[in-house]
Amino acid sequence: MQPDAAPRPTLADVAARAGVSPSTASLAFSGSGPVSDATKERVLAAASELGYAGPDPRARSLRRGRSGIVGVVLEERVRAAFLDPVKIQMLDGISEGIAPLGAGLLLLTDTGEPGEHAVSIESAPVDAVVLIGCSPRLADSIEALRRRGIPAVAIEGETGEDIPEISIDNLQATRRGAEYLRQLGHTDVAIVTLPFDAARTRGPITEELLRSSTAATASQRLAGAREIFPEATGRVAGASSIEEGLEAARALLADPARRPTAVIAQSDLLAAGVIQAAEELGLQVPADLSVLGFDGIRVDGLQHDLTTLAQPSVAKGRAAGEAVVQMLSGEPPASRCFTSTLHVGDTTAAPRASAD
Amino acid sequence: MQPDAAPRPTLADVAARAGVSPSTASLAFSGSGPVSDATKERVLAAASELGYAGPDPRARSLRRGRSGIVGVVLEERVRAAFLDPVKIQMLDGISEGIAPLGAGLLLLTDTGEPGEHAVSIESAPVDAVVLIGCSPRLADSIEALRRRGIPAVAIEGETGEDIPEISIDNLQATRRGAEYLRQLGHTDVAIVTLPFDAARTRGPITEELLRSSTAATASQRLAGAREIFPEATGRVAGASSIEEGLEAARALLADPARRPTAVIAQSDLLAAGVIQAAEELGLQVPADLSVLGFDGIRVDGLQHDLTTLAQPSVAKGRAAGEAVVQMLSGEPPASRCFTSTLHVGDTTAAPRASAD
DNA sequence: CGTGCCGCTCGAATCGATTCGGCCTAGAAT
DNA sequence: ATTCTAGGCCGAATCGATTCGAGCGGCACG
């Protein structure tokens, strides 16, 4: 009457078989503690006879107080996050940064619904957490992390807490890009922004939306553009994707009489969409329309060398990883702000009819 | 003299404060056990007063025997894996497949060096594991998983164990693609393969390398091609990337006298590299050279509609995730084999000088 | 030959929560 | 009024390993 009752051996079993105490067996395994070679060998032999696969990670992490896992919180579904090359690059950087820890990366998504989820941000066996593009709706989770004493680092997100932040010069960079457009002679510039709120509301840029903005990145980039083009308006996209950029640009470029001579897109994917929309309408880029992007990724299928504000995504991720390592070793980590560089490609030029 | 000694409250503390036993407090939190509303409320109040952030996941997973984490084993470094769109799609599918579990995804890499690593495949608090493109060098790890009783599913990998496999019709699909090339009139076909061994040896395809192959995918696709073109030879790439494809194709196409009229690449990224190499040499694709890929992804920067064998990557991942769910609920899971479809794009055509 | 020291091994406490059987009490039924 | 029942709550064992201080035996030195 033992259906599948094959209880896995425990360290105690191994110890018993080897004729030593559990404590000694434990030392023989993990510790570099004072154990004679003979004993260690005997323990290992007993273990292999019993088919013991090493200490249970769960028990070990309970006792040790560390799980060897670093959580990465993505605001979107995993599928959505992976569509964004910038996120991938950051993840890459993070994994590089935490390499000295030898820790695993646990992908967590902020679904907002802690209900069913066995493992949410609030209840995951992680030693530290990296928040990617976190928004205020994570406030509760962040509070829970703080109470648990789990160190956290935020990439491009306003936490309002004492969490170190890894960011870039969104405002200054965009201003630099806008400045470049002005120098080319553009005066009539439209903007396609990233979403401002958690609901990802699409549509025209309104002051109301701006005031209730919960997305620092979008707000800062917009502010930077407006330092050069105070009157500039445009549309809010629902996400960073070619599709969204296409849709926004169709609206912006629909009326030939009110067409801007340049578009500032807040991401390269959006910019690619804008270019697609322009080509649909028979406009030449950059002759009829200049397009400026942001990110510095290579966009799938895009046949232009996009003029863009290249940000060091991998370095950002790496810095976040390094901050995690620092915090785990007790040092207080510092926030860091990276600088983006203007890459001039072939999607910007002087406006055809210089109106200035 | 308490430097930072602020020991986090435990469930016992909360229970004491609420004037109930730890067991009751536990029920108040997680269980839907028989606890009066009044008591539950009192416990929750005590918890919030103490700043208790909920049960410790480590302790909970020890007791429960489940961690709510599913491991995903990538053969390469995280950075490398994410460069491959196929892997991303699979990951996406996996996360979809295990959604009912509400489990987190732990990224693990098979570095081969368990030494420093705090969390390796062998010692990670996971409830189940998905192996992506696992090779025989994982044998030890797989054995450890088996001993631990951790269910595993393999995608495109020969495990040699009783692990369910999710695969595609590599051989038949490639044969279909090769058949298509033959119908177009090609007789002189070269092949660019994925690596055959863990060392990722580059160079010409040799029978010796084939015999010692540890990569089923590469072997099967090659075999499929040779069912149509038995004499076909070519080069082994060091990875699935445009760069590797470029390098391999440069070697293949270097000598104008011995140029094939078509190249069968074992991945779309390799195919893109082949096309790039051809264009470097002033060859027209498909007029001078037909190129066949494998995967059906959209390749970054490629200006062709690649003729390729499209495989359902997301579905594969989802199937793997579903298999995990099944195994965790006790049902014996089944292996599954998906079918690839030939997508005819604009990179294949009849050879210019039909030599047949 | 005695003592001191060093290195290996062992016991027992601990990490924090979960779970199961038992007990107690209040309300209902007879 | 007494017994039966059932809902609530508690105690104690348990999950599996780690860790620290104590104990003990052997070797070297005086």
In short:
Two copies of one chain form a homodimer. Chain A is α/β, with parallel strands linked by helices.
Widest beta sheet: strand line-up of chain A: 7-8-6-9-10-11-13
Helix count, DSSP H or I runs of 4 or more residues of chain A: 13
Give the strand content of chain A.
15-25%
Described by strand count, sense and barrel closure, the largest sheet of chain A is: 7 strands, mixed
Quaternary: homodimer
Task: Describe this structure as you would to a colleague.
Two copies of one chain form a homodimer. Chain A has 356 residues and is of the alpha/beta class. Helices cover 40% and strands 16% of the residues of chain A. Chain A is built from 13 helices and 13 strands. Chain A has a seven-stranded mixed β-sheet, sandwiched between helices. The longest helix of chain A is centred in the last third of the chain and has 16 residues, at 313-328. In chain A, 50% of the residues are buried. At the A-B interface, α4, α5, α6, β2 and α7 of A face α4, α5, α6, β2 and α7 of B. β2 of chain A pairs antiparallel with β2 (104-109) of chain B. Chain A binds a DNA duplex (30 and 30 nucleotides) through α2 and α4.
